[in-house]
Amino acid sequence: MKVYDLAHARAGDKGNTSNISVIAYNDDAWALLLEKLTAERVLKAYTNVAKGPVTRYELPKLKALNFVIENALGGGVTVSLALDMHGKSLSYLMLDVDL
Amino acid sequence: MNSNKKNIRVGTGAGFSDDRIEPAADLALNGNLDYLVFECLAERTIARENLTKLKNPELGYTPYLIERFEAVLPACIKNNIRIVTNMGAANPVGAAKAIRRVAQDMGYGNLPIAVVNGDDVTEIIRNNPQLPLMENSEPVEAIIPHMASANVYLGADVIRDGLNTGAPIVITGRVADPSLFLGTMLHGLNWSYDDYPKLAIGTTAGHLMECAAQVTGGCFIDPGKKDCLDPVNIGFPFADISQDGSLTIGKLDNSGGRLDVMTCKEQILYEMHDPKNYITPDCILDISDIEFHQEALNRVKVTGSKARPRTTTYKVVVGYHDGYIGEGEVGYAGPNALARAKLAEQIVRDRLKSRGFSYPEIRVDYIGISSLHGAGVDRPEPYEVRMRFSARSSSRKAALAVGFEVRTLHVNGPSGGGGGSNSIREVLAVKSILIPRHMVKPFVTIEGNL
Fold first, then answer.
1. B318-432, CATH topology level
2. Chain B contacts of A48, Cβ < 8 Å?
3. Domain ranges (residues) in chain B
4. Which among A90, B42, B222, B432 has the fewest CB atoms less than 10 Å away?
5. Which one-letter DSSP state was computed for residue B311?
6. Roughly what angle, to the nearest 10 degrees, separates helices B261-268 and B196-209?
7. Which of A79, A80, A90, A96 is best to mutate for the B interface (most B CBs within 10 A)?
8. Starting at the edge strand that comes first in sequence, how are the strands of the sheet with A7-14 ordered?
9. Model pTM?
10. Which residue of B has its CA nearest to A87?
11. Using CA atoms, how far apart are residues B64 and B163, in angstroms rounded to an integer?
């Protein structure tokens, strides 16, 4: 099962750090994400994009996780050689993770 | 002076410098607003606009200033809507003069404008080269010779002070995005700048609204999975805030998009790191217990945000020249496309090397395969692929050579390479510094006569 089936997501940027929210569609999805979508799992998924570290924050009232992924944006939005310098597309790398 | 209303409505007019124009006009005409706030400054905008100002001292404000004011002035004047914006960028006084010319041309005569000054701290940074950069703790000294701008993120108090002058428009340079919105509440609802439960509400409202359509269906649609009505005409949000601190986010029913708990959840976490420690110039916001409740169609009530006292420092963004990026692209399609693209990459690498150029960083993308999420395993080879070669250099000549060597592939490279393009750009990088509040002395001036 993919995160895409369980949650929606949005990516934001600050300097060289990307944050990606993962918002569960329902209680069952929330329980599964809480258990399986660990910071380690996310760092592995982003291995071709980011060095890390990855920090996971939990927001139970929103049934949401917020992942803060450091060293993810090619040195920072203003200097990056990447096409997607803001990392806007990185939310879909999260949604593509197989749990 | 402060107004002392029980309820106010604050709308978003723009969420970034290149945002759509019409939604602001729609809100000004039909939104029953008290305030309209335009957020138009990205991190490096002021550095870029400082360069514009060097060439023409009258410029240095954001590019769409005139168009935005032409679109909303008639309705804002008719409906008595106060406008707050950071469109002043590197030249808030110049922006105020430009807006006054627009107003004059449209027949509104003398339009007084409050200007917030004092965010430009270039001289303070120059005189304090020991200040450490937040990114690597090194002193700012090394980048001072290349500095193009240094501006503090001012807080909501300066917006309140601007509105207190009575001028219908407040224009600023760098002010923190949520503070632009919170300032209207300090003024309109007569909130104290030390009433942290209220600052929490106002900062939350500002954070939800500062990116405009991102809370009303923008950056949201995934066809068949997460849809919304009329994505061509997504409306911008407004907030209804009461003096005792209740907050509801809304949008006009006849506008496109959607505003619900899902869009609010995505936007509250946008550019958020630790949800308990979102630092603005006004407070430290804690949204870890926030809740959203759908009150009606296109109306979401927001509760549960908290705040702790603001820090003793202001954050400064320093913009500086950091060399050049050169790039070139070329496309291949049909049988063996990827192999031809890979050979093209190798030829460019070897050509640059044989001409004596070297680069601290080179990045090669295969658009269609690996340009957005990096290289993956077992990705199917697409029918067409575009090779993009980019490199950074402190030398303009070396950066230019990148695009040149990609361009030469059209005649010298692998078979069937087409649709090439190349470019070079000057890099304006940014770094951050925290400086003690007492070093910064913001003040309000008036253009025109009150």
1. Alpha-Beta Plaits (3.30.70)
2. 373-376
3. 7-119+154-311, 318-432
4. B222
5. P
6. 100
7. A79
8. A7-14, A17-24, A64-69, A54-59
9. 0.97
10. B372
11. 23
